[in-house]
Design the sequence.
């Protein structure tokens, strides 16, 4: 596609359920980032994938959060046993390894009720 | 200490006014983004800058690499410009400002 695509754009889930958020980066982009923005808060780093290297998971807030990137392309962020504090906009961005161009998806708004 | 500082945090303007939002950063960067988020909406990238100036319609973004400073200008502001504007810089990872909430009154 022409840009970074995230799905779904909006997700409402019940507390305790698992959710999967998807990010389709621009083809050929080797770096992929996940961030989230909670209500009234700034953007918070979650995880960073770079090529075949081990991902930087230092921003994941708990072991309920995990992410994978299959084939160096599509990434899925999984939140298990969702809690109300997980409600946020989850943002994905990707870029080429060797250049400065970075592109953002439009985000997934997650609401846990 | 925040790597990225934005000002003002909140801004109210009358329709038609010229608006400036400022961003200062302390880390070495390879690029800077201005993002826009409408109430209840997703985040949209308005500009990516590594030097100089870019213009899209009524929006202008500038960056001064030596001074580690960027500005976003909106000319002839309109109520539909009401949104949160976020400065994001790309160093080792992305660092984000806390955003500027803009309200344009008709």
Sequence:
């Amino acid at each position: 596609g022409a840009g970074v695509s995230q799905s779904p754009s909006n997700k409402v889930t019940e507390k305790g359920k698992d959710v999967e958020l998807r990010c389709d980066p621009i083809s050929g982009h080797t770096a992929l980032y996940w961030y989230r923005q909670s209500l009234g808060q700034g953007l918070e780093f979650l995880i960073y994938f770079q090529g075949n290297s081990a991902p930087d998971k230092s921003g994941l807030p708990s072991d309920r959060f995990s992410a994978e990137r299959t084939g160096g392309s599509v990434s899925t962020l999984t939140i298990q046993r969702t809690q109300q504090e997980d409600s946020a906009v989850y943002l994905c961005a990707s870029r080429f390894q060797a250049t400065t161009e970075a592109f953002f998806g439009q985000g997934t708004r997650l609401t846990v009720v | 200490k925040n790597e990225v500082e934005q000002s003002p945090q909140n801004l109210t303007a009358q329709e038609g006014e010229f608006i400036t939002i400022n961003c200062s950063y302390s880390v070495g960067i390879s690029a800077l983004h201005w993002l826009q988020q409408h109430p209840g909406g997703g985040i949209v990238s308005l500009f990516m800058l590594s030097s100089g100036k870019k213009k899209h319609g009524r929006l202008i973004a500038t960056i001064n690499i030596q001074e580690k400073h960027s500005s976003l200008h909106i000319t002839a502001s309109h109520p539909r410009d009401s949104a949160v504007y976020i400065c994001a810089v790309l160093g080792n990872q992305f660092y984000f400002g806390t955003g500027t909430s803009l309200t344009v009154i008709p």
User: Anything to note?
Assistant: Strands of chain A lie at 5-7, 10-13, 19-24, 31-37, 43-50, 65-69, 75-79, 88-95, 102-104, 108-112. Chain A touches chain B through 22 residues (CB under 8 Å). The mean pLDDT of chain A is 90.
